[in-house]
Structures are given as structure tokens and as C-alpha cells.
Specification:
Length: 168
């Protein structure tokens, strides 16, 4: 007896991408709301290798777009609930640490605290990349610019704390 089955379509890429992009925008907005470029910020001594302020917006936009694509690729590749929970947890922790850095540095004006917290942020990116690697090597590699940017941000934060401390 020949039983015809309709093949199961692979999960859509566009729906998880739209959700991930929306979440990335929300995270970026939260960090942006905590970022105050005012007299305090402009009075900070910074190293000569600090990127211009105009570079930060395009850099973060690119990073968040790459994170959204990476999340959608992994979501599509691994539909199991346990993997998706791990993926959401890793990205959630990373998002919280990303926003926390902005709160510490800009809102509380504590580059010294932010220079300690950035180590956790950096580690959370590595964790997200490890989780992504279990679904898609490409997805994990898409986070390399994020890791590089936060490495630069860590060095910059430490140097700003050193040049301007003590705080509090």
C-alpha cells in the first residue's frame, strides 16, 4: 500500500528573524535610553585610539543585525524545545549584561564598575557563540564582530576608568 505523505516544510526563517530583530531593537533602545552623552561624558579623558562617537551607532546596528540573523539561523536549524530554551537563556543573559553596561557607564557614571561588568558581557558573547555552534557554525561566526567590538569596548572602558578614577 502506497501512503502519500506531505513533506514537512522546514521552519520559516523570516518569522524568527523578525522576532529576533524586534528584540534586538528593544535591547538597543534600552541601552540607548541609558546612554547620556552630556557634559560628564565629554569631560572624560579618553585614549587617543578611541573610535569617534559617530562610529558607535553603525557598529551596534551591525552587531544587533548579525545577532538577529544568527539567532534565526540557529532557531531554524534546531527546533527542539531544550535547545531553544538554552538559546533564549544565553541571548537573554547577554542582553541583560549589554544593557547593564550602559547603565553602569552612562547612567550611574561608573566606568570602574562597567570595566568589571564588561568581563561578564564578553563571557556571555562566548557562551552565546558556543550555543549557536551547536546549531550552525555560520551563526556562531556571525558573532565574531560583536566579540571584537566588546573586546575593544573593554579595553576602552578600562582605560577610561584608569584615566579618570576614582569614581563615586
Amino acid at each position: 500500500m502506497n501512503v502519500s505523505r506531505t513533506p514537512t516544510a522546514p521552519p520559516s526563517f523570516w518569522k524568527p528573524l523578525a522576532v529576533a530583530a524586534g528584540l534586538a531593537l528593544a535591547i538597543g533602545a534600552a541601552g540607548g535610553l541609558l546612554t547620556r552623552l552630556d557634559a560628564w561624558y565629554y569631560a572624560l579623558r579618553v585614549p587617543p585610539w578611541k573610535p569617534p562617537d559617530l562610529a558607535f551607532g553603525p557598529a551596534w546596528t551591525t552587531i544587533f543585525a548579525l545577532c538577529a540573523v544568527a539567532a534565526a539561523l540557529a532557531w531554524r536549524a534546531r527546533p527542539e524545545a531544550a535547545f531553544r530554551r538554552r538559546l533564549l537563556l544565553a541571548f537573554g543573559v547577554n542582553a541583560a549584561l549589554n544593557v547593564l553596561w550602559s547603565a553602569l557607564f552612562f547612567f550611574l557614571r561608573r566606568p570602574d564598575w562597567a570595566s568589571s561588568e564588561v568581563v561578564l558581557l564578553w563571557g556571555s558573547i562566548v557562551w552565546v557563540m558556543v550555543v549557536l555552534q551547536n546549531a550552525s557554525r555560520l551563526a556562531a561566526l556571525l558573532l565574531l564582530p560583536y566579540l571584537a567590538w566588546v573586546t575593544l569596548a573593554a579595553a576602552l572602558t578600562w582605560e577610561i576608568a584608569r584615566l579618570n578614577g576614582p569614581f563615586g
